[in-house]
């Protein structure tokens, strides 16, 4: 006697999970292609083929390449409480922790180089996604750091420098590091933790006011 197969108790949940997995797969595939070939050099047809789906199905989830690019930012640009941690360090005037947090987010074990490559492509191609990328990935922390440096100068903890240029200089160190290791493939000779500590020590060493500066 054949047994009657019972229907799944949660068919909608299973369908929803499957849809989420398909969407995540499309995002990862597109991110990899954008990071390799640029925004203009990657067609929706190529993305669909690489993901193993039809172009029509791709459009069902993402009507345009811009929508897909935005989804990539939403998916990959996760700060996981970074801003709250940085603001807490700023409130406590913990210079070393604040700079370490900012550097560690960009230089960390297992960091995805895709975002950095996407930033470079979007800027070089000069399309509208470049501003969106910069605002979400860098501007918020760039402004936060410049304001922090300004406040520390006012209370006499840092020597007198241009806060905006100082913030640019610090992030310039990090960006150059990413360029060397994520784009040119230069191997790291220190651990990620030691690298961050060295960069922070070097930068704060030139920024913190010494007794002889008074």
Offer a concise description of the structure.
This protein has 214 residues and is mostly helical. Helices cover 71% and strands 0% of the residues. It has 10 helices and no strands.
Describe the protein's architecture and organization.
With 214 residues, this protein is mainly alpha-helical. 71% of the residues lie in helices and 0% in strands. It has ten helices and no strands. It has helices at 11-37, 44-51, 55-61, 65-76, 82-91, 95-106, 114-125, 129-154, 163-183, 192-207. Helix 5 runs antiparallel to helix 6 (95-106), helix 6 crosses helix 10 and helix 8 packs across helix 9. The longest helix is centred in the N-terminal third of the chain and has 27 residues, at 11-37. The protein is elongated. The protein starts with 10 loop residues before the first helix and ends in a 7-residue tail after the last helix.
Q: Any chance you could write out the topology, listing elements then pairs?
A:
Blueprint: H1 11-37, H2 44-51, H3 55-61, H4 65-76, H5 82-91, H6 95-106, H7 114-125, H8 129-154, H9 163-183, H10 192-207
Q: Shape from CA axes?
A: elongated
Largest sheet: none
Q: Low-confidence runs (pLDDT<50, min 5 residues)?
A: none
What do the pLDDT scores average to? 84
Number of helices: 10
First-to-last CA distance:
94 Å
Q: Helicity range of the residues?
A: over 70%
| Percent of residues in β-strands | under 5%
The Rg value, from CA coordinates, equals: 22 Å
Order of helices and strands: HHHHHHHHHH
Please name the defining characteristics of this protein:
214 residues; mainly alpha; 0% strand
